[in-house]
């Protein structure tokens, strides 16, 4: 049986103790079903500091100018089924009347 390499020191000499994996070289212990410390997890917070996740419904907290359009995205506009992405504009969504758009999480709050 092949065990996963240690996520901390990349040793191949790991062993399993019940639900945990243990590295005898650096003494690191981890659960293989849980994400490791090295994995990048996207953490996105709204204007109030609440954690956002894919599929959430958010509300725009200030009027936003839409680049390439004469109209504005008004305060209170609800945005359904958001998708979180890496980058400066970290929310990818579709807004009725505007179409696909990227928003910054600092301008929305979780509904």
From TrEMBL:
The record's annotation in InterPro entries points to:
YjdM, YjdM_C, YjdM_N
Show the Pfam families listed in the entry: YjdM (PF03831), Zn_Ribbon_YjdM (PF08274)
Domain of life, per lineage: Bacteria
Q: Which residues form the Protein YjdM C-terminal domain?
A: 44-110
Q: Which residues form the Protein YjdM N-terminal domain?
A: 2-31
What family is it from?
A: Belongs to the YjdM family.
Q: Any idea what this protein is called?
A: Putative alkylphosphonate utilization operon protein
Species annotation: Serratia symbiotica str. Tucson
């Amino acid at each position: 049986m092949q065990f996963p390499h240690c996520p901390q020191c990349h040793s191949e000499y790991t062993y399993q103790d019940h639900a945990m994996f243990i590295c005898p070289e650096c003494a690191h212990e981890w659960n293989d079903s849980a994400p490791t410390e090295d994995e990048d997890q996207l953490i996105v917070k709204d204007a109030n500091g609440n954690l956002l996740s894919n599929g959430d419904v958010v509300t725009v907290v200030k009027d936003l100018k839409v680049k390439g359009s004469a109209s504005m995205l008004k305060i209170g506009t609800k945005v359904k089924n958001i998708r979180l992405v890496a980058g400066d504009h970290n929310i990818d969504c579709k807004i009725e009347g505007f179409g696909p758009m990227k928003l910054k999480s600092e301008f929305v709050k979780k509904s």
